[in-house]
Amino acid sequence: PKGEFVATRHFTERMRERRFDLADVIQTARTGRIYNPPEWDTKHGEWTWRIEGKSLDGRAVYVVFSLLGKRGVKGITIETPKE
Asked: Helices 22-31 & 9-17, crossing angle to 10 degrees?
């Protein structure tokens, strides 16, 4: 289904810093899972979710995002789990 993805400046910076690209984000969204309920972000006044999965090159990754209406998603940050 068609939708909109908006990357915050922070998301874009972390994506470059951690050597991910939008293809990795799409891979995570398509094949990853949300394990925990959403969390309320008091600073920005919105619910955020964390989807965990693998990047195209097999690295573990999670993407924190919020919803924008019925078909929009805002990328907040992208990280690799700390081991």
From this structure: 100
Within 1-83, where are the H helices?
9-17, 22-31
Coil, helix or strand at residue 60: strand
Question: pTM of this prediction?
Answer: 0.89
Q: Which residues contact 18 (CB under 8 A, 6 or more apart)?
A: 78, 79, 80
Per-residue pLDDT of the chain (83 residues; tens, 9 = 90+): 688 999 999 999 999 999 999 999 999 999 999 999 999 999 999 999 999 999 999 999 999 999 998 899 999 999 998 75
